[in-house]
Amino acid sequence: MRAVVQRVTSAAVTVGAEQVSSIGKGLCVLLGISRDDTQRDIDFMIRKLLNLRIFEDDSGKMWTRSISDRGLEILCISQFTLQCILKGNKPDFHLAMPADKAEPFYRDFLEQLCKAHGAHLVKDGRFGARMQVHIQNDGPVTIELQSPPSSNDPKEVAQLDKQLQRRPKETSNPGRLA
């Protein structure tokens, strides 16, 4: 699973002339689902999105607060093109999960994100539609996230599970993200 995460002052999605969703200050998340993604990828991405410290605290100190800390909104948009690889100059999307499987997977991701962050704080676009995304990037701050590759080695699986359960460490280095 891949995500492009932007800190925004506002973001909106339209389909044709209809505005589907909009948020104020928060995160706009473009999410690409790969054909190999599992529940572990959902867990990883939700944990990272909710704990990514890219906001300021009440005194204005940057890189100290997460979207969860601030209670801000998230706009999620499914974007299969994030799973693109180039063959010469032509994009190839064979790594993306097929739409018939990706839509329920994406809906499950959104449902779990809503449970973890609050349904009133999570908005989304329209799966499979040709959308126009209007983003007012704040900073600009743009972060790329990718879930760790899956493994069949039991030791690696156990280590990945421990990492997923670990809370981010507090740091005194304001330039370092969790």
Model description:
- Strands 1, 2, 3, 4, 7 and 8 form a six-stranded mixed beta sheet that branches.
- The longest helix is centred in the middle third of the chain and has 19 residues, at 99-117.
- The chain has helices at 39-51, 67-70, 99-117, 154-165, and strands spanning 2-15, 18-23, 26-32, 73-78, 85-87, 90-92, 122-124, 132-146.
- The two termini are 18 Å apart.
- 27% of the residues lie in helices and 32% in strands.
- It has one domain (2-165): D-tyrosyl-tRNA(Tyr) deacylase (D-tyrosyl-trna(Tyr) Deacylase, Chain: A), CATH 3.50.80.10.
- β1 and β2 (18-23) form a beta hairpin.
- 30% of the residues are buried.
- With 178 residues, it is α/β, with parallel strands linked by helices.
Mean model confidence by pLDDT: 89
Distance between the termini: 18 Å
Shape: globular
The tally of strands reads 8
Radius of gyration: 17 Å
CATH superfamily: D-tyrosyl-tRNA(Tyr) deacylase
What is the CATH topology assignment? D-tyrosyl-trna(Tyr) Deacylase, Chain: A
Strand content: 25-35%
Based on the structure given, which CATH architecture is correct?
3-Layer(bba) Sandwich
Count of structural domains: 1
Structural class: alpha/beta
Helix content: 25-40%
Question: Segments where pLDDT lies below 50 for 5+ residues?
Answer: 167-178
* H/E element sequence: EEEHHEEEHEEH
CATH class: Alpha Beta
Number of helices: 4
**Sheet having the most strands:** 6 strands, mixed
Region (Disordered): 141-178
Biased composition (Basic and acidic residues): 153-170
GO molecular function: D-tyrosyl-tRNA(Tyr) deacylase activity; Gly-tRNA(Ala) deacylase activity; tRNA binding
InterPro entries: Daa-tRNA_deacyls_DTD, DTD-like_sf
